[in-house]
Amino acid sequence: MKIKKQIDPNLVQLSAPYQKLHHLIETIDEISIIDWTIMHSLAYICKKYKEKFNADYILSYDGAPSQSYEYRLTSRLWGMLSAKACEGQKVKDYIDWFFLNYRSNNPFRSIGAISKADLVSKYLQNKQKKDIPTLYTRLPDNVITIMMLCKYEKLQYIRTFGDLYFYSKANELPADILAEFDAIGFNFTKVQ
Prior knowledge:
mainly alpha, single chain, 2 domains
């Protein structure tokens, strides 16, 4: 088993690529999520680690950052989440979820803890369940606004998917309301 060479970044002069990575860790919140790459996600993991455990994540400093063990694991995470360029939000949401749900008092020692296939699978299943509205799920605000401002008095009180579903089963929705739904991209068929 190969032991990782761990170096305290405060004690030695780091190479330019690692100095750039440490600067990225400090400034990750200033970078647009659309511009995120695997390296940005790695920096975000290091930032969240420091927030959660009040200690810096110790990188392996073995070769260039883009060839490091941590980079490869973060790249694997992007693959498991099916994230492509400009889809850093998917990875950020997962990282936030991981740190929110990490229950151990001991800090993890490897980014492998984040990129476990069963954990990513659990996250994706939970996310899929959350995306399916129930009868009690509140309608999006722009849909509620359409309902409140419409000329049909009975529709002005609809606030949940259940309200809309039951109304649509008892009565046909007016064509002008359906046209407004289409205009804002609200997919009424997922309610049915």
